[in-house]
Design brief:
The structure holds three protein chains of three kinds. By secondary structure, chain B is an alpha/beta fold. Chain B has 19 helices and 24 strands. In chain B, α14 runs parallel beside α16. The radius of gyration of chain B is 26 Å and the shape is globular. The chains are: A mainly alpha, B alpha/beta, C mainly alpha. Chains in contact: A-B, A-C, B-C. Chains B and C meet through α12, α13, α14 and β20 of B and α10 and α11 of C.
Chain lengths: 356, 527, 350
């Protein structure tokens, strides 16, 4: 009991959210198997993206709002694969291959910006993703389908002949990963679908992150994250490592977005990527991570809690106020609120430690 | 064997090191002493390839290791050449454990599949041998603690020894040749300091060359074989430790043969008995300064100098009274209590403060001369104010006229009162600070390091100005300076601080030796 | 001569020169293609008047060293509450605008105080904290818009009858009330005089304010907190005053905006409202360390003229009939965030 109290005091956020989830579940009264099935899907869909945030935190860049650019790379790749007409797992793999150089380029650019704007990395990443989004829109709305970037697949293009539709069906690569090996567990009248391979990929990433943190480079990242000045004095190349960390994060985010999209089966060309950073970051923070410290456990727990809240909020809003929208706005509020709270707590702590 | 040959270094036109040559032999402990600003830190920064040196235009002269010329471009480069340093501020990663810190960027790793294919940086850390090395180094450093303890909660003394252990470990595994200790005992208790000195001797016996920088003269004499004395960026002398003593070193350190400033001494006959400011048991929390129970009286109409070595509290006193840093104790101004930690009342009571940190505290660098001169007086005393429709605002024209007058009287070289002060020279910036203080019409003026970073010609002018304010306008002045000669030239009395307390109050013509001893905390013996 | 040109370029700034030349190019294009240039300029004027106060609201936080106030939505929400309550009680015309302003100001003082306390506790991270505090407040308000039992049937959803509509229409007597005061045509270009006057009055107010003790203390704190301390100025107090005034100006800003626009947009609409305003002041030449009234005015005019003119001209010239998106919107995104990014990554912030 004593241990539990001290655990709560040292990290109250996950406990508070667990409590909210339980209350929400109790109010919403969603049938358990439906809920579990939904959660399994959401875990498989979102975990990879949230995990992509860990490395930048370790190296001291804070919350990487620029993973949006990684999501863009993923989306570009997905649409290119549609154009190429590749199907299934090969299509998915080709998409990943296409995404890598794009994400590396975005990561390098963003990393460079981070190095110029030291101390303002988060707001820089935040704005950089809006900026990149502007170019993304420019290309997708006005350039694709013209003679500059000719596309043949008319199901992607707008009826006018150029510009990409706002909703594109990704039939080619839908469930490319999920459907390789799926287990169906009967639960009452329902089935719970478990996409085994997707979870294996996520597990692989978790292991890889933990392995990475035990390597020489991981050790350098950890040192920079705490004391960039001391690290520099001891010959660690701070700027270079920060760029590498950003690149890793953004490449992972592009894979994460592809995993997300193959599960969803459609891409909202002009919106799917925009909220990626917010939801991934909110989830990570709900899991107990901070601006300075994040673990694989935080990410997985956070995705579970945050998405539970996501699923139950509209239902709970309906039951309590007769309006599902209340719940919808509530979950948006939770996402923004938890980020605001964490950033504020981080700033207060930083101020305290610098003044003492 | 390490050799410095004719090292010269300039910062923005100020020479901070001039033709310094120095030889440290294998197995020798070489002490370097000097006041703050004598050039010790700059010399070490050059040796260690700190970025600040390259950014300010490099240095002249050369350094040799075993007769070979070296060119140190970065701290990492210095380390590769076998130069190690125990820094004044701790260079430790707080969240790492002792082993990780000792082995920072020198980790023992073993290869794996990834490291062979992707990058060598993917090699995994091999913890057991790292622990073993660390354990041995700690043992040698005389620190019997677990090598897996995190550094973050350890007492400061321990942290110092961890840094030492790191260098010991380097000596064992790398090609460490020279080890620099920069004020290593500053944070240690007496017994810890003793222990550290023992370790330093041990390291020297192992064949390391050691540079030992300290202003604790007794320590330097005790531990080192030879001592180099720096003063004003010049090497004043080199002594065999056995053939010198504290008094001689102190005299060499502070005695200045600068050209005497041509400023007439004040008329000493004027009686100065009325205490205008009384400081009682003042304690100030200022980082890097020690103010622990100061009692001091300032007499009406005098120039009171405050001197002492860096970090001993001379700057802390004025900053504390002015309310810039948290202070406790009692201060009376004209026999009425002056509340501490309250800069507004301090200024309202007609006291002004010229900070030692001109660019950091004294000026709004991006604003005009006008604003710099007038803002405080307008804010505190409603000077240059004008009221319309019940709104009190700054009368820009009145301020402009006043600024022009100040520019004229103080001979501030500028384009006009609208010029941004960042583009002015150090001397002119200081004059703006003085103009700003004068605009407050003070009766008591605190001046802290008024000539720091100002070229020689302008120095003289600034000091003359202070004397003029004192003589002609009857302003009482409290002058804090690390330049003893400056204090002795214009002060009526000089208080010397040591370890946060006033040691003694001396006459300007007291001997160099007595000043030196007072700075080392030894009160002059009444004859 | 060469020197003079160089110094002129330096004072005006390259971004402004580029935008100015682009604007001129657009105007020439518009004239050549025979477009209604007067109409375009009228629209620009209206947009300038409509958005001016938001941009002005950013000046004091920048001066106080708080950075770009991404938290404008905090004040905007306060103004929205005033606007909605006025509609609920069926006020119109001047009464309506005054009522909304008073309620908005009152609420903004309270909200601004708490926002100021938060920013004082999170020194160094004001921009990020401000952004997400604004976002959180907007989404929290959404719940209230749904739940507060408003009675005026014109405000609530016709079907279901619960919660406010997303867009509320102002009655004819209220819409453009200020715009129409004393409005006249200058060489065929309509000038929304009343709104301009209000903007001018507030600019004048800020101009004088920056010369009062409070104003100068804000400048000192922003320029050098230690100088301020040594001048007896309380840093947190000055920061608080700047935040409070900024929040109030944002609240008044939405009142002006709504009367000019003729609509009130609720729910997530205020979410991104700070961004165009921030782009304005930066395009005007402000940096994180230096900002002035001139930057506010020039920036507002440049940015909004650019936005109003680009779409029609580009559509006309390039013959793009976009059915999916609006190229101005894309340009707005690129320019405004590009400007912010540029400001954030300038060496030394100036």
């Amino acid at each position: 009991m004593k241990k539990l109290t001290s655990l709560f005091l040292s990290n109250p956020v996950p406990f508070i959210f667990a409590f909210l989830c339980i209350v929400g579940l109790w109010i919403a009264k969603i049938p358990l198997p439906v809920f579990i099935n939904d959660m399994v899907t959401r875990m498989s869909r979102n975990s990879f993206l949230t995990l992509s945030l860990i490395i930048p935190i370790v190296v001291g860049l804070g919350l990487n709002f620029a993973i949006v650019t990684g999501a863009m790379a993923g989306q570009i790749a997905a649409i290119v694969v549609m154009e190429l007409g590749l199907k299934g797992l090969p299509g998915f793999i080709v998409a990943c291959v296409i995404a890598i150089p794009l994400a590396l380029f975005f990561g390098f650019s963003v990393g460079k910006l981070f190095n110029i704007a030291k101390g303002k990395e988060m707001v820089t990443g935040f704005i950089a993703s809006f900026f990149a989004n502007g170019f993304y829109q420019l290309v997708f709305l006005f350039i694709i389908g013209t003679s500059i970037i000719p596309f043949k697949n008319t199901t992607i293009l707008l009826p006018q002949g150029w510009g990409v539709r706002s909703m594109v069906d990704l039939i080619n690569i839908q469930y490319a990963l999920d459907s390789i090996f799926r287990i169906k567990i009967p639960f009452g009248r329902f089935f719970i679908n478990i996409p085994v391979i997707t979870f294996l990929v996520i597990a692989g990433l978790c292991v890889a992150i933990n392995f990475f943190l035990k390597t020489k480079m991981g050790q350098e990242f950890k040192a920079i994250g705490q004391e960039p000045h001391v690290s520099h004095i001891y010959g660690i190349n701070v700027d270079r490592n920060r760029i590498i960390a950003t690149m890793i994060s953004i490449v992972l985010a592009s894979f994460g977005q592809l995993i997300f999209l193959q599960n969803l089966g459609t891409v909202n060309t002009y919106a799917s990527h925009e909220q990626v950073a917010l939801f991934a970051i909110a989830a990570l923070l709900v899991g107990g991570a901070t601006v300075k410290k994040a673990t694989v456990f935080n990410a997985l727990l956070g995705v579970l809690l945050f998405h539970t809240l996501f699923v139950v909020s509209p239902q709970a809003g309906q039951k309590l106020f007769g309006q599902p929208q209340v719940g919808e706005y509530f979950r948006v509020f939770i996402a923004y609120g938890v980020v605001a709270l964490t950033l504020a707590l981080h700033a207060m702590k930083a101020k305290y430690s610098s003044s003492s | 064997m390490i050799e410095f040959k004719n090292i010269t270094k300039e910062y923005y036109g100020n020479t901070v090191l001039k033709d310094v040559s120095l030889v440290v032999k294998k197995g020798e402990i070489h002490g370097v002493v000097g006041e703050n600003g004598a050039g010790k830190t700059t010399l070490m920064n050059i040796l260690f390839g700190m970025p600040v040196i390259q950014e300010t235009g490099g240095y002249e002269g050369e350094m040799l290791i075993d007769g070979k010329k070296i060119n140190v471009k970065s701290p990492k480069g210095a380390m590769d050449l076998g130069i190690g340093m125990i820094h004044q501020e701790f260079m430790l990663i707080p969240g790492f454990n002792i082993t990780e810190n000792v082995k920072l960027n020198r980790e023992i790793t073993h290869p794996n599949l990834l490291s062979r294919t992707v990058s060598q940086k993917m090699e995994t850390l091999n913890i057991p041998p790292m622990r073993k090395d660390t354990r041995e180094a700690l043992k040698e450093a005389g620190l019997g603690i677990d090598e897996l303890l995190p550094v973050i909660g350890l007492p400061v003394g321990y942290k110092q020894f961890i840094e030492v252990a790191r260098e010991i470990d380097k000596a064992g595994t790398d090609n460490l040749k020279l080890l620099v200790f920069d004020e290593p005992t500053a944070v240690l208790t007496e017994s810890e300091a003793e222990k550290l000195l023992d370790i330093i001797r041990l390291l020297a016996q192992k064949g390391l060359a050691i540079l030992f920088i300290s202003h604790r003269l007794d320590e330097v004499i005790k531990v080192s074989n030879r001592v180099t004395i720096l003063r004003d960026g010049e090497k004043i002398g080199e002594k065999d430790s056995k053939e010198t003593n504290i008094m001689e070193l102190a005299e060499l350190m502070v005695g200045r043969k600068l050209k005497k400033l041509e400023i007439g001494f004040k008329d000493k006959s004027a009686p100065m008995n009325q205490s205008v400011l009384k400081i009682r048991n003042l304690e100030v929390d200022m980082p890097g300064e020690l103010v622990k129970g100061i009692d001091l009286d300032v007499k009406k109409g005098e120039i009171l100098g405050i001197g002492g070595l860096a970090g001993h509290g001379k700057i802390g006193i004025t900053n504390g009274v002015a309310g810039l840093f948290p202070a406790r104790g009692e201060v009376f101004y004209n026999d009425i209590p002056l509340p501490l930690n309250n800069p507004f009342t301090f200024l309202q009571r007609k006291i002004a403060f010229l900070s030692e940190d001109r660019r950091g505290v004294g000026l709004l660098l991006m604003e005009s001369i006008d604003t710099n001169i007038g803002l405080t007086a307008f804010y505190v005393n409603s000077r240059f104010s004008r009221t319309h429709l019940g709104i009190k605002y700054l009368n820009a024209r009145e301020l402009r006229n006043w600024s022009l007058k100040m520019i004229n009287e103080l001979d501030i070289r500028c384009v006009g009162p609208h010029q941004v002060v960042m583009s002015l020279s150090g001397g002119n910036q200081q004059k703006i600070c003085i103009a700003r203080a004068l605009t407050m019409e003070p009766e008591l003026l605190f001046v802290s390091e008024p000539t720091r970073g100002i070229d020689v010609g302008a120095k003289q002018k600034i000091l003359e100005l202070i004397v003029k304010l004192n003589k002609d306008m009857g302003m009482t002045v409290v002058l804090t300076s690390s330049e003893l000669q400056e204090l002795r030239t214009i002060s009526d009395r000089i208080a010397i601080v040591h370890h946060g307390k006033i040691v003694d109050i001396l006459e300007p013509d007291t001997s160099d030796v007595d000043f030196g001893l007072a700075m080392a905390g030894i009160r002059r013996v009444e004859q | 001569m060469k020197e003079q040109i160089r110094s002129l370029v330096k004072t005006v700034g390259i971004p402004r020169l580029i935008i100015l030349s682009f604007l001129l190019l657009l105007l020439v294009l518009a004239l050549v293609t025979g477009m209604d240039v007067k109409r375009l300029l009228t629209d620009s004027m209206v947009r300038v008047g409509r958005n001016g106060l938001f941009v002005l609201a950013l000046l004091l936080p920048l001066k106080a060293g708080l950075g770009l106030n991404f938290g404008l939505p905090v004040g905007i929400i306060c103004g929205l509450i005033g606007l909605v309550l006025g509609l609920e009680w069926r006020l119109t015309g001047l009464n309506y605008i005054l009522f909304a302003s008073v309620v908005g100001t009152g609420l903004a003082v309270i909200a601004g105080y708490f926002y100021g306390v938060l920013l004082n506790k999170t020194k160094g991270q004001e921009m990020m904290v401000g952004t997400y505090t604004g976002f959180a407040m907007v989404s929290l308000m959404c719940i209230f818009w749904l739940l507060i039992p408003f009675k005026n049937y014109a405000l609530i959803w016709a079907i279901g009858g619960k919660g406010l509509r997303t867009t509320l229409v102002l009655p004819a007597q209220t819409a453009q009330f200020l715009d129409n005061i004393l409005s006249f045509k200058l060489v065929g270009v309509g000038i929304p005089t009343g709104t301009f006057l209000i903007f001018a009055i507030f600019c004048l107010f800020i101009y004088v304010f920056l010369r009062t003790k409070v104003g100068l203390s804000i400048i000192a704190v922003g320029a050098n907190p230690l100088f301020a301390l040594a001048s007896g100025i309380k840093e947190n107090k000055a920061r608080m005053q700047a935040t409070l005034l900024s929040t109030v100006l944002a609240a008044l800003g939405i009142v002006i905006f709504a009367q000019s626009f003729g609509f009130i947009q609720l729910y997530l609409a205020p979410l991104m409202m700070a961004f165009p305003a921030i782009a304005c002041i930066l395009i005007g030449g402000a940096t994180l360390r230096k900002a002035s009234l001139i930057h506010v005015i020039i920036g507002t005019i440049l940015f909004h003229t650019l936005l109003t003119i680009t779409l029609p001209v580009v559509t006309q010239a390039v013959a793009i009939t976009g059915e999916a998106g609006d190229i101005t919107e894309v340009l707005r995104v690129i320019i405004s965030h590009g400007m912010i990014l540029y400001a954030l990554t300038r060496k030394g912030g100036d």
